[in-house]
Amino acid sequence: MVQYTYKFEKVLNIREQEKQQTEMAYKEAVQSFETIATELYELLKKKEDLIDVQNERLKVGATIDEIHHFGLFIGSLEKTIEEVQQKVMQARMKMQWHEQKLLEKNLEVRKFEKMREKDFAIFIEEQKRIESQNLDEISSLMYAMKEVR
User: Fold this and answer.
1) Residue 27 is assigned to a structural domain of this protein
2) DSSP codes, 37-49
3) pTM, whole model, 2 decimals?
4) How many C-beta neighbours within 10 Å does residue 30 have?
5) Is 130 part of a structural domain of the chain?
6) What are 76-135's pLDDT values in tens digits?
7) CATH assignment of the domain containing 93
8) How many domains does the chain have?
């Protein structure tokens, strides 16, 4: 029996490597997004806690300097939060872009795998046809040899 070789095997291998690279880039983008989103969460939590502390200090009685200090610190924190929110949006867009590329690579690889499956099915059918033809020839030869004797 003849060995099966897929004519697009090298192309399929390249596409699978591209898919793996895209998958790794996607995982890195997800990790980056999670890190930045966690940073944003911690900043928001810090701001909330700071506001709670400020409210407690106001109930007890705080000096004008303390109130001013809290106000400056919260203002600075809000500016940092806005910057990190921008980073989160950029990281989300990058992650979604990589996700789209990964879906495209998955489709490409799947198409080549389907083509290989169909090509292999055709190859098997052709091998069966050749084997059947060979068996027919052998049986014809055997019959002819019997008649000659």
Assistant:
1) yes
2) HHHHHHHHHHHHH
3) 0.76
4) 15
5) no
6) 999 999 999 999 999 999 999 999 999 999 999 999 999 999 999 999 999 999 999 999
7) 1.10.287.1700
8) 1
